[in-house]
Amino acid sequence: MGNTDPVISVRSLRVDRGGTTVLHGLDLTVPDRQIVGLLGPSGSGKTTLMRALVGVQQITGGEVEVLGRAAGDPVLRRQVGYVTQSPSVYADLSVTENLRYFATILGVGPRDVARVTDAVDLARHARRRVGTLSGGERSRVSLAAALLGDPQLLVLDEPTVGLDPVLRRDLWDLFARLRDAGTSLLVSSHVMDEATRCDRLLLLRDGRLLADDTLPGLLERTGAHDVEHAFLRLVEETPVPDGAAAARSPRHLGGEAS
Ligand SMILES: Nc1ncnc2c1ncn2[C@@H]1O[C@H](COP(=O)(O)OP(=O)(O)OP(=O)(O)O)[C@@H](O)[C@H]1O
After folding, report:
1. Tell me: the pLDDT tens digits for 44-83?
2. How far apart are the first and last CA of the chain?
3. Measured in angstroms, how far is the CA atom of residue 47 from the centroid of ligand 1?
């Protein structure tokens, strides 16, 4: 893979969950060494797309390529770090104990534990049990675990949810440092103002991509003054596909399997 190749390339991706189509033929790319924001309301399909990228989601159709390989290829295990929405670390172990445990699974050494502890600025809490840390500190432990294999790509599912503005800013500063050090990041959020921290944006709604653009490009194209209004304009402009209107009618509400 050359330096200018995208780190993620998705073609005609379709995913059905519980008998319902939740991703409707997505086409998108994520460039190397950028922070790409995956923005969309709750239920728009962000987690499903991320699961497909890391190879844990069964897909109905299309192709998903990550770092030049099919998503889920075992070689990608160390090259792609994935942080899910729910905590993936043990509350009753210390920061270091957690990281040593995941380092053993990945086959990396203690030097990497120290490296990632410093990267997320948790050295002073290294001996604290994770259960006693704040929400933001706990998120950083999960992120540190994802950084252990020195991944080329980080896939982060709503990492700032529930954090106060200061912690959110600190975490976005950390993402920018990781990007500057050569990592590519795909970060999902339903907080539209986090768009300002991203190099590019993917706007998702009801399992369809409304935009794949930079923030300035998106604002210019829609004539909106912020991403929230750009999103609303795109929703107004986008024709409702056949079947989608019926699927949203009250008769169908609550009838979907989960
Ligand atoms: N296991 C499942 N079975 C059936 N439908 C599911 C399942 N998991 C998710 N869905 C549905 O798929 C759609 C997309 O869900 P997904 O979790 O990908 O959205 P999201 O954008 O990540 O939402 P949030 O921001 O709330 O996490 C939703 O309509 C959801 O109800």
Report:
1. 999 999 999 999 999 999 999 999 999 999 999 889 999 9
2. 38
3. 7
